[in-house]
Amino acid sequence: MSAVMISRKVTRKWEKLPGKNTFCCDGRVMMARQKGVFYLTLFLIIGTCSLFFAFECPYLAVHLSPAIPVFAVLLFVFVMAMLLRTSFSDPGVLPRALPEEANFIEMEIEAANGNVLAGQRPPPRIKNVQINNQIVKLKYCYTCKIFRPPRASHCSICDNCVDRFDHHCPWVGNCVGKRNYRYFYLFTLSLSLLTIYIFAFDIVHVVLRSVDSGFVLVCFFTLWSVVGLTGFHTYLISLNQTTNEDIKGSWSGKNRVQNPYSHKNIFKNCCEVLCGPAYPSVLDRRGVMLEDSSSPAPSDASAASTNKGSNPVSQTTKSSAPLIPNEHTPDEAKPGIGAGTQKSASSPKDEKPPSPTSPNAVAPGVIKESTH
Amino acid sequence: MATEFHNLQELRHSASLANKVFIQRDYTDGTVCKFQTKFPSELDSRIERTLFEDTVKTLNNYYAEAEKIGGQSYLEGCLACLTVYLIFLCIETRYEKVLKKISRYIQEQNEKIYAPRGLLITDPLERGMRVIEISVYEDRGSSGSSSGSSTTSSSGR
Fold first, then answer.
1. pLDDT tens, per residue, chain A with 372 residues
2. Distance, CA of B102 to CA of B56 (rounded, Å)
3. B150 touching A, CB under 8 A?
4. Which residue of A20, A84, A369, B63 could cross-link A159, Cys pair, CB 3.0 to 4.6 Å?
5. How far apart are CA A303 and CA A344, in angstroms?
6. Distance from CA of A78 to the nearest CA of B (A)
């Protein structure tokens, strides 16, 4: 059955991802659902720069220097590249827990909470961890069914947990998180430079030619907002904080925990945020989903599980698929165990471990990780 | 142990999944990717503690190498910025290279150590770098009376 060539369209994993993102270019582009403000951003940047190139650059190139428009073009290209990179990339979305993992966590929680009397509200699901000698609370996400890693937060607009969540930016049409924060910062920084540049040469142009100064006014207002935003994010980077933490006041105030992620050195903080490694996406949007038939039939799925990629909905054994060399059919591969032959087609699917097996196993030591 | 599997193929076809153990992240050093080396009790009679700890420690070292902030990461970052990040279309980032090493390491560990003991490690990358998932298999032939019954999932099996 694995030899049958299926001539239908291949389904990629992005098509089945939960959450409210939109995907383009067969999963290469990932954005939020509402893109209206992003188009406005594009329009404003491209529109302003076009006017600048059309009306002012010819004069400036001839009367001052041709380097002026050239530098403007380079800066404009950089701004657009950073904007598109921020908007189109995965901000660091954490995939939701598969059923076994979710059950495992539930068991831990139940074991840690003990018996809750009927009518009583169960205690909030919080895990305490110790990071650099500070106690940090990890909250449980009911949507994604995981304890959020430190600094992660759930974006309600995109309906995803995002690692090192900064904020959801409608101007770029995407969340800003671990993977695209530096591009976002470079975008605001380069946009500030571009706006200042255009503003400065507007003024020069106006002065030299005594022309109408309406354009200058638009630049002036844009300038303050963009430069202000860049300044704010520079401040956050130097303290190694996210916008989310700043708004919630996580690390401010005497009686609250001090920021455990800061290196207490502005240079080191900047280096970590801007020059850190390029984190890979854990979503595997373009992986091929296994589908032998229309229904995600467990029996087929496991037999075909030797293909790469794993169906996020279905089971366990496929997760190990990439590690196992490709097998032809169940029959030839099997050795002497007779019972194995028939069962191999419908193998481990049905054997879902009935959930609460050993609640006492791991729970108590794991929930409270801070050293007492 | 009665559950002896000689290679991964046998494991897939003649064993049934009994349980899964999830090794959680260790956040004591911050947000770097690091897994707990605490030995889960379900694996008590399936694998030696030292082997397990070695595997997790090696994985932690690999991740630390990938996330190291130093000369090489600065160079990569600056070069990428200068080329407007187009260079990543041509070359692999250091992190991706290390992830490939990790994937090969896990496969090798599975083949040599874990599959013969009826266990299988899943690459954390497939679980969002949140957990190391270890699948525990039991031989179908020896139903119920499997000696490796520290997997006290005796409920269904």
1. 555 665 567 888 888 888 899 998 888 899 999 999 999 999 999 998 998 898 888 888 888 888 989 999 999 999 999 999 999 999 999 999 999 889 988 888 888 877 766 777 777 788 888 888 888 889 999 999 999 999 999 999 999 999 999 999 999 999 999 999 999 999 999 999 999 998 888 888 888 877 666 666 767 778 888 999 999 999 999 999 999 998 888 877 766 678 888 888 888 888 888 888 888 898 888 888 776 544 443 433 333 333 444 444 444 444 444 444 444 444 443 444 443 344 433 434 443 443 334 334 433 433 344 443
2. 11
3. no
4. A20
5. 8
6. 7
Token readout for A239 is: 């303290």
Q: Using CB atoms, pick whichever of A278, A337, A353 lies closest to residue B153.
A: A353
**DSSP string spanning A39-89?**
HHHHHHHHHHHHHIIIIIHHHHHHHT-THHHHHHHHHHHHHHHHHHHHHHS
Q: Inter-chain contact A317–B17, Cβ cutoff 8 Å?
A: yes
B80 touches chain A (CB under 8 A): yes
Question: B90 CB near a chain A CB, below 8 Å?
Answer: no
Q: Which two tokens stand for residue A91?
A: 């901000």
Interface test with A, best of B31, B63, B100 (most A CBs within 10 A): B31
Q: In angstroms, rounded to a whole number, what is the distance separating the alpha carbons of residues A312 and A289? A: 9
CA distance A180 to A149: 18
Pick from A87, A320, A349, A368 the residue to mutate for testing the B interface (most B CBs within 10 Å).
Answer: A320
Nearest CB to B141: which of A280, A320, A339? A339
Q: Can you give A292-361 as a three-state secondary structure string?
A: CCCCCCHHHHHHHHHCCCCCCCCCCHHHHHHHCCCCCCHHHHCCCCHHHHHHHHHCHHHCCCCCCCCCCC
Task: Give me the residue from A150, A277, A324 closest to B94, CB to CB.
Answer: A277
* Token representation of residue A250: 């996580």
The two structure tokens encoding residue A287: 């992986």
Identify the bridge partners of residue B137 per DSSP, sorted by sequence position: B17
The CA R_g of chain B, rounded to the nearest whole Å, is 19
**Catalytic residue flag (residue A49):** no
Catalytic: which of A49, A169, A175, A219?
A: A169
The C-alpha angle B77, B80, B84, rounded to 5 degrees, equals: 135
Chain B residue with minimal CA distance to A260?
A: B30
| Residue type for position A256 | R
Dist CA A287 CA A323 (whole Å)? 16
Which amino acid, one-letter code, is at A38? F
SS3 A12: strand
Backbone dihedral angles phi then psi of residue A242, each to the nearest 5 degrees? -105, 160
User: In this complex, which of B14, B17, B129 lies closest to A340 when CB atoms are compared?
Assistant: B14
> What residue in B sits closest to A333 (Cα-Cα)?
B9
Q: What are phi and psi of B108, to 5 degrees?
A: -65, -40
Contact B93 A146 (CB under 8 A): no
> Using an 8 Å Cβ cutoff, are B123 and B106 in contact?
yes
